[in-house]
Each structure stands twice: as structure tokens, then as C-alpha cells.
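Limitations

Structures in this collection are predictions, not experimental determinations, and the ligand pose is part of the prediction. Treat each record accordingly. The example that follows, with S-adenosyl-L-homocysteine as the small molecule, is included so readers can see exactly what is and is not provided: the inputs are given verbatim, and the output is the predicted complex.
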Amino acid sequence: MPDIDRKIRLLMQLRREGITDTAVLRAIETVPRERFVPEALRTQAYDNLPLPIKQGQTISQPYVVAFMTEKLALKERMKVLEIGTGSGYQAAVLAQICRRVYTIERHRGLYLDSRKMFDELGLHSIVTLHGDGMKGWPQQAPFDRIIVTAAAFGQVPDALTEQLAPGGLMLIPVGDSSGQQIVRVTRHEDGTIGKENILPVRFVPLVSGMPSGS
Ligand code: SAH
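Predicted complex:
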């Protein structure tokens, strides 16, 4: 089956599963997911599945990418921070909708590969950093939106909450021994912080510090 047919099947599936935001569906339609998965898995690029990438990491399931992107309630002028660039797919989807996307990855190989892919696809609005995303990106803060695509153990890192703009929103998978939930963290205009669980998920862990030799 050609990629285009697989892609249409995926978009129909996402709609059935409740994704209704047309900007999100259009972004998924536009970004060539086959360029972000390993060559050997290209025929599965439009299956609604997470797939392995280098360094023992994963490119998230399209449904989870669509769900999180929809729940971010993005507007074009917003400044968005992603923690966990991985393949770069989620950042590429975000960049279809808003103008300023910042993304941090701790593995040098993934950081370099994703940069190369952003260049090849002409995604010049994505700003990349090789570093520890647990610390956020203080020089670029505050952010209107933060999306974390690796699971924090136990609690939301304070540094990230602190870098949310007033009225800002963060989506972050938080796990404990009983599983993980995507938590929506809201910084209200009056400075108070709200938290609610919105979807049970399974992500690779958010790891503090840098890998050795990286
Ligand atoms: N958004 C990615 C999903 C990648 S999986 C995509 O669309 O493909 C999660 C990624 O988070 C992995 O690449 C992992 O190396 C990275 N990661 C984990 N802890 C991190 C940290 N503290 N700082 C930056 N990246 C981190």
C-alpha cells in the first residue's frame, strides 16, 4: 500500500479515536513520519504504533502525538518548549502550528540526526539544544506551552513549572509504580498552579543529567 493510502487510513483512525482539531490533523497529514523512523521500519511509519529509534528510545504513537498536540491548545504566536526531541517528529508536528518551537535532547546522536532532518525538511523555525531538559531552557523562558515526551518519575520537575508563562500550560507524563498519566499543569494568571491527569500512557523515562561520552 502506498504511503499516501496508509496516511489517509491513519488520519481516519485518529478522527475515530476523537481527534477533531483540524490544525492537528493537517499537521499530521503534512509531516512525513516515514522520514523520522528507521529505514527498516518505513512500511510501518503510518501504523498507529510507537516505533523504536536509536539509543533505545521510541518515536511516540501517532495517537499520543495528536492527542498531546490537541490538548496543548496551540496558537500560532505561542512559544513552545519540547523536552525529548528523539526522532524530531513531535517537534515537526508542533512547527506546523506555531512559529517558535524549542526542543531539547540529551543524546548527542539523536540531537544531531533530528537537526539534520529539520534542515532537510526546511523546518527552520525549530531551535534545538543538546542538553538536560529537566532543567528546561532558562535563557529562552518563559514558554506559553511545554510538552515533555519522556516520563518524569514521581513528580513534575520544578524548573519546568517555573518556566511556564502566566496562563501557560504544560503536558508531562508522570509515572510511579502503578503506571503513567499525562498530567496537565496550568499556571493560572494569578500565579497558582493546577494539575490534573488526562490520559494513561507509557513513555520512556525522563533521565536527569547527560549520557556518558555524550
Ligand atoms: N518526541 C520524540 C519522542 C522521543 S522519546 C519523538 O517525537 O520522536 C523521549 C526522548 O526523551 C528520548 O530521545 C530521550 O533521550 C529524551 N530524554 C529523556 N530524558 C531527557 C532529558 N532529561 N533531557 C532531554 N531529553 C531527554
